[in-house]
Amino acid sequence: MMKQSDEAVIRILGLRKSFGPVEVLRGVDLEVDKGEVVTILGPSGSGKSTLLRCVNRLEEPTAGEVWFEDVQVNGHKTDMNHVRERIGMVFQSFNLFPHLTAKGNVMLAQRRVLGRSKEEAEVNAVEQLTKVGLADRIDYFPSQLSGGQQQRVAIARALAMDPHVMLFDEVTSALDPELVRGVLDVMKSLAAGGMTMLVVTHEMGFAREAADRVVFMDCGVIVEEGPPERVFDQPSHERTKDFLGHIS
Amino acid sequence: MEAFLQWWETNTLTRLFFSVEVIGRALPVIAKAFPVSLTFAVISFVAAIPAGLALAFMKMSKRRWVRLPAVLYVDLVRGTPLFLQILIVYFGLTLLPVYGDFVRANPWSKEPFFLGLDFTLWARGMFVLSFNSAAYLCEIFRAGIQSIHKGQLEAARSLGMTVPKAMIYVIIPQTIRRILPTLMSEYILLFKDTALLAAVGIAEMTLRAREIAASTLNQSGYVLAAAFYLVITIPLGRFVQRLEDRLAQSEGGGVQAAAGDGRPAESPQPAAADGAG
User: What is the complex's ipTM, to 2 decimals?
Assistant: First the structure.
């Protein structure tokens, strides 16, 4: 049994997920406390993105439990839409709505999901876009923005919903190297501001600098976890050493 | 000039197909029937849009018993000639008891209703055209919706949107933009297909042209009717072409196309240097 913390925002217990005959997650336990920044590392195919997507049930867990605050995410009667309002997610491929401007992207769910007025949503959208450094791009369409700018709009879009936790799914993997920094800077300031974050990434620098805890996954299980200094500098598991050796 | 006209009206080819005299006689008749053809096409098409959309969603349903009727409908309609459908449905409707009851209870429906045609004629003609077009629109909508990258739905869902909200605010607007040229091509087809209504005696352009051909033993009325169809189809066809070109341009350089393979390209737009954040 996992340690039970009153502060846990996310609790994952014995999570399993299969795609057909392939078992991608083979029993994962993980807790994320309020204000904690947890990075998940691991080779591709280790199940880290699937784990993240089970948290807001973009993937349906095959077995186990996923809890968000006091709600079981994979419960039969859970109102997922209500849960998702409180869980922000940012994707590798941005997934901005191409028919809306940056501001329109940030406003849409505020209005149609939270029922905020147009004025309220607009004020908040401008504020969020300013926060991610795009005050001068609010009326641009996604196709007129660079990848890094688009990803920051996507972060603003999620933040505008006042989420209790933010999920980041390899958000810099599709970016050209010179665009990565702007996105990481936004994430670091979010972390510093006390946002609870679950981050799947290949950015070791970010993990080392901003994470409270690093989780290393391989073959659908958590192999090792701990503070970044310990996992990076004294990995206790052979597979972690192997992986870190390949990356750096 | 006089001599030329005389030659024109005696030469077999020009006299049979392009007779000035016959065209002059046909012009007011065909012109009067032109709005009939146009009205059948426009209203049938507009009616087919919600039907086609509903069929598309049925066909994409996870439930077999929802999917099956739509699949059957589309297969039957697309797999048989429209001409045959018109013959079956147009006359078939009049054989239904409910049709007889309606006509008896509403004598006005057999009086001239619009453009000289009675209501039952309009209703039956439009029903069969919509019935046909909805099946084609279904496939257009379905392909359009499925062409939207699944990340769009995931993003909308992750923001707490229900599936209907995600459809209305995120997926459908993008779909419409993408399928607009195809929709308009479908409209052009439908407009031309109204000619088949001549077979059941609806006085649209082709029927009128046939009456003129029969009474003059001359084809020029048909040629004139063809010109009337072209007045709509050529400009619309050009417009579709331009829409397609524009769409290809914007999607080719845009993010949507690139995001499809999970490797979004940087936009070619003069986006300022990143890393300002």
Answer: 0.92
